[in-house]
TrEMBL record:
NCBIfam families: eIF_5A. Residues 85-154 form the Translation initiation factor 5A C-terminal domain. One of its GO terms (biological process) is positive regulation of translational termination. Keywords: Hypusine, Initiation factor, Protein biosynthesis. It comes from the Eukaryota. This is Eukaryotic translation initiation factor 5A. Belongs to the eIF-5A family. The keyword Protein biosynthesis applies. One of its GO terms (molecular function) is translation elongation factor activity. InterPro entries: IF5A-like (IPR001884), IF5A-like_N (IPR048670), IF5A_C (IPR020189), NA-bd_OB-fold (IPR012340), Rib_uL2_dom2 (IPR014722), Trans_elong_IF5A_hypusine_site (IPR019769), Translation_prot_SH3-like_sf (IPR008991). Signal peptide: none annotated.
Length: 159
């Protein structure tokens, strides 16, 4: 062993990993998978038989959970795929700023001001209309792989 000190510069964040490995053959419909570095929800899985050279293949059709784009991937069923850690959190809506950002109340009483309004027109109009009418709104924020987006809305009654 040497007496030298080694210093390593870490470029990763100290939090948990953004993904975890799972065998392709174990990923099912309605599960999650990473395709082309995007977190996706699996909408269709088909498995081909083993061919002349061994591996059965899994064909995944999945929808990006943030932008709704359809992505496909074919992976040998014995190989590992990345699966994103997907979290859903509810926050109470406090305010909507002119530049399209929302102010949300977290469970511990702090505010979260770094989220934009969703791009989905239907959800966007529901949020703006409900807020304009003075309703108490709770938004569901989905987060995966360092991205966050409002994905659902609940009306918990008038203020």
């Amino acid at each position: 062993m040497s007496d030298e000190e080694h210093h390593f510069e870490s470029k990763a964040d100290a939090g948990a990993s953004k993904t975890f490995p799972q065998q392709a053959g174990a990923i099912r419909k309605n599960g999650y998978i990473v395709i082309k570095n995007r977190p996706c929800k699996v909408v269709e899985v088909s498995t081909s038989k083993t061919g002349k050279h061994g591996h059965a293949k899994c064909h995944f059709v999945a929808i990006d959970i943030f932008n709704g784009k359809k992505l496909e991937d074919i992976v040998p069923s014995s190989h590992n795929c990345d699966v994103p850690h997907v979290n859903r959190t509810d926050y109470q809506l406090i305010d909507i700023s002119e530049d399209g950002f929302v102010s949300l109340l977290t469970e511990n009483g702090n505010t979260k001001d770094d989220l934009r309004l969703p791009t989905d027109e239907n959800l966007l109009s529901q949020i703006k209309d409900g807020f304009g009418e003075g309703k108490d709104l709770v938004v569901t924020v989905m987060s995966a792989m360092g991205e966050e987006q409002i994905c659902a809305l609940k009306d918990i009654g008038p203020k």
